[in-house]
Write a structure and sequence with these properties.
Helix 1 crosses helix 5. The longest helix is centred in the middle third of the chain and has 34 residues. It is built from seven helices and no strands. It is 75% helix and 0% strand. It has 157 residues and is an all-alpha fold.
């Protein structure tokens, strides 16, 4: 019989402490409608994992968990979005063509790139702060930001 995980008061306090920031972060990754679900799933997985007790920087671990959860959801969403775009193009009978460039361009940026863009422009964090928060090097953050900017510019020009 598998043991069932139960949220402790300490776990609930951790969630209360970081949930608002994590939801804002997730909103930049998956949009406001899916942010709370991403955060709830990510936090639940994080605090119920065997590694949780050994985590030194819980805030960074939770941010990384949210990023991973968003990436996981993005993979399935991207396939669904492609099917919806094809279906809409087949059934669009209006005189005005539907411009889906912006929607498609945003979906072609990786979650890591979306995370870096969100934290840079919406949270006004430095590359050093972002690197620390996501557990990545400053150089990686700079590279992801540059790649995201170039990719968006190329896709939208």
């Amino acid at each position: 019989m598998a043991s069932q995980w139960v949220m402790t008061p300490h776990d609930a306090e951790i969630y209360r402490k970081y949930s608002d920031d994590l939801i804002r972060f997730a909103s930049g990754l998956v949009g406001p409608s899916g942010a709370e679900d991403v955060v709830a799933n990510a936090v639940l997985r994080a605090i119920s994992s065997a590694q949780w007790k050994a985590v030194d920087n819980q805030r960074a671990y939770l941010y990384r968990s949210v990023l991973n959860e968003a990436h996981s959801q993005h993979r399935s969403t991207q396939r669904r979005l492609a099917r919806e775009i094809k279906a809409q193009q087949r059934h669009d009978t209006s005189d005005q063509p539907v411009d889906l460039d912006v929607l498609v361009a945003l979906r072609k940026i990786s979650e890591r790139q979306r995370a870096v863009i969100h934290l840079t422009y919406w949270e006004d964090l430095t590359t050093g702060d972002i690197a620390s928060l996501l557990g990545l090097s400053v150089r990686t953050i700079e590279r992801e930001l540059t790649l995201a900017r170039r990719r968006l510019e190329a896709l939208l020009s």
